[in-house]
C-alpha cells in the first residue's frame, strides 16, 4: 500500500501524505498506513514530522491537521510528545499557523487532562510547564514583533495575544492543570527546579514590554487580559485550600474545653500552664475556632466548675484556678499568638461579651460564693496582667450591671458579704512573703511562729494552693525540706530549743505529707534537695505506689534494737523527751517498736489499756509518729491473718480517736488534724472497704461512749472505696485482701462507666464527680478496656449528630492518657473490628465515621503536642495525687500501656503462683459484658519504643516514628478493602478514616496520610473524587520516595477520569 521505510522518516511521511491526498484517504486509512512505521521510530518523532508538514507554508494544512488529531486520539502518539512538538514552533510572523496551534491546543485541553498513557503520566507535568512557557514566549515575541515590524498586522497580533491569554487563564482556572504545573515546578531530590526560573524570566520579559508605546495601542480589554495573565501564581509550593473545620457545633465545643479545664483544675494542679495553653491552641487549630470563642468557653467552663461543688466542696481549687491561673493561661496563649497586644485584648474583650450571655451563670456563682461580683474580681486580675484595658473592663462591668440590676437576685446577693472565695487572691502575696521568711538560718522561734501561723484554719491549704497556682510550689517544698532536714538532730541544745526543733520537724513533716497527698510525690523528687532527704526516702519506701498498692518495703525497714528500745521507753515513759532526739531515727524505728508491742499484746503480755497508752503517747506529742505508725499498720493489715487484721483496725481507730490538746504542744489541734487527714488518705488507698467500715464503726462506738454521736468525716471523696462500694463487693472467703479480689469486686465496671458517661453526655459537660469516677475506672481497668468501652458506647447511638457529640466528649476524655489510649485504639481495637466478621456492623455509618473521627482527632492532638513540644497527659498519677506524671513514667519495663490493675494482678499471679478463689481465673472476662465485644485479642501491648524518652516535657520524635509505623500497618490493612472489587463496611470505614484525616489542618493530615502505601493513593480517587480536591492528593503522598511525582500524576489522572465520569452521569 505504501513504500517501504528507507530510514528517512520525513521522506516516508511526505510520500504517505501525498498518496493520502491524491486518494482522499479517510483518517482510519491514513492511521493504518502510519502504523507500519511506528515499529521503526518513536511516536514523538512521527508527530514532529507531521507537525512540520502542517506548518510547511504560511497557512496550515487543515487536512493533515485532522490526521494529526486522529493520531493523538488513536494513541499513535502521546499528548506529551504532541506538546513537546507544539512548543517548538515559535515563529510569530506566521500568525495563521500560531493561531491554528493555539486553537489546536485548546481543543486538546480536556483530553490532555484525562490522558492515560503510561508515558504521559511521567511527562505530562513537564509538558504543562513547557506549554506555559511557550504561551508567555508567544505573547512577548508578539509584542516585540508588533513594536519592531511596522508591517505586522495589529489585528492578527491582537488575535494571537487574546487566544494566548485566554488559554493561560483556562490553564490557571482548572484545578487539575494547575496541579500538574505545581507538580512539575516542585523540586525533586532536594534540588530546585530550573523550570520555574524559565517561567519567571518569560513573565518578567512581558512585564518589561508593557511600558512600550506599542502596548498602549492595544484595546483596554486586551491589556486587562495580558495583565491578569501575569498575576497567575504557579508557585512550586502548592497553595493550601481553605482550612477544614471539624464539624463540632458550639454546643460540642463546650465539653471539649470543659474537660481540659476540669482536668487542669482538679487532676493536674501543679502543671506548667504552657502545657494547657498549647493543648487549647491545638484544639483551636483542629476545630478552626475564633480566639474570642475559645476565651469565652474557657471562662464559662471555669465558672461552671465552681458551681459543681455540691458533693466535693473544694472551692479553693477552682478559685485558685480562676483568679490566679486563668490570667497566666491567657498570658501564655497571647505569647504564642502572632497578633499584637491590642488585637489580643480585643479578642479577649469579645470573648467576655459572649460570656455575658450567660447571666444566670453569674447570678448562680455570685449567690454560691456570697459575693457581689465574681466577674469584677476576675477582670481586675486581667487588667493587672495587661490582658485587658481599663476601658474594656469598665464596659464589661457596665453591661453586666445593666442586666444584673434587673435580676430578682440582686437584692439578695448584695446583702451577702462573705468573701471566702477570694481568700485565695489574698493568699498569693502572703505565699510570696512566707517563702522569704522560711529561712532556717534565722531565729528558730521566729521561724516556728511563721509556720504555726500557716497551720491555723485553712491557711496552709490556701497558701499551698496559691503557691501551686503561681508556680512557686516547688520553691515552697524546697524550703520545707530544708527545715525538716535541719531539724532532725542537734547537739548541746536546751529544753526549750529542743521543743522548738521538735515542733519544726513535726510541722514540716506534716506539711510535706499534705503536699504529697494533694500534689503528688513528684513535686518533692523534682527539688534539688528532695531526692536525698529523709522525708522523700521514707515516702518512696512506705507510701502507696502510683497504682495505690501498699509496699512490702515498708515492712522491711532496717531498725536498731537499741534505738527501738529507746522508742519504747519514750512511748511508755511518763514524759516524752525531746532533747537531743534524732527525729528521723524515731520515725524509722517507731514501726518496729509498735510491732514488738503488738506481739506482746497478741500473747496477752500487755493488756488493752497499756496498748492504748502507747498509741496515745505516739500521737500525743509528735504527730509525725502517728503518720509513720499508721502507714505501717495499713501495710501490715494486707499481709496478716484475720486476728491480726482486727488488731490493726483497733490500733488505727485508736490513733484516729480525738484527744484533748496538750498545752505544752504548739498548735496540737491543727497538727493532729493534718495527721489524721493523711492517715485517712493512706487508709483509703490501701485498705479494703471492709476494714474501713470496721474502723469507722469502732470510732463511732467510742464517740458514743463519750457522748458524741458525730462521726468524723474520714472518707475522702470518690476514692477507691467509693468505687468498690458502688459495685457492691462480695464477701471474701479468706483473710488476705488480694489485688485479684479487689478487681473481681468491680464486675459492674461497664455499667458504672456507661452511667458516668451518660450523665456527662446529657449535661454536655463533665463534672468533677464524673471525672474522678472515670479516672478511677481507668486506673482499675486499664487503657485497652477503657478505649474499647468507648467504641462500644459509640455503636449504641443511631443519629449522626448524637454520635458526633459523643465522639467530641470521648476525644476530650482521652486526655486522661492520650498516648496509651490512641495507641490501643490503632493497634488493638480497630484491627479487632476489621478482622472480626461479627462486628462489621459497627464499621457502618454513622458509627464507623465516629470511630474514625475519634482516632484522627487523637492522632492529630498527639502530633500537635509533639511538634509544639508539649507534655502529653500520660495517665493519672498515684492515688489522688493531682499531678500529671512525666512522659517516661507512663511506661512499664515491658509494656507501653498504662498498667491496669487487672494486668498487674495477672503478672503477679504468674510470679507468685498463688491460689485464689474460684473466680481467680476470670481475668478480663470479669469486667466484660455478656458478649465478647472486641476482646478477641487480649495480649499485652508490645512496647513501641525500646528506650522510653527521658524528657518529661514532650513526646520524642521516636514516638512519632512509632506512631507512624502503627498508622502504616493500619493502612496496609485498609489496602485490600480499597483496591479490591468487593465493597463492604471495611471499605466504608477505610474511606471514612481518610476523609476525616483530610478534614484536619495540612500538617496533621500529612502526618497521618503520608503513611498511605503509594499504590493505594491512585485507587482512592475512584471513591473520593467528589470529596477531595487535587491539593489533597499532594497531602496524601510523601515526597521522600523516588516515584512520588509519578504517584501524584497517576492520582491526578484518575481523579480527572472519575470526575468526568461523574459529570457525565
Automatic annotation (TrEMBL):
Database matches in Pfam families: Med24_N
UniProt entry keywords in alphabetical sequence: Activator, Nucleus, Transcription, Transcription regulation
One annotated GO molecular function: transcription coregulator activity
Subcellular localization: Nucleus
InterPro entries: Mediator_Med24
GO BP: any one term: positive regulation of transcription initiation by RNA polymerase II
Gene Ontology, cellular component aspect: mediator complex
Region ranges (Disordered): 872-910
Principal cellular location given in the protein's record: nucleus
Family: Belongs to the Mediator complex subunit 24 family.
Record's protein name: Mediator of RNA polymerase II transcription subunit 24
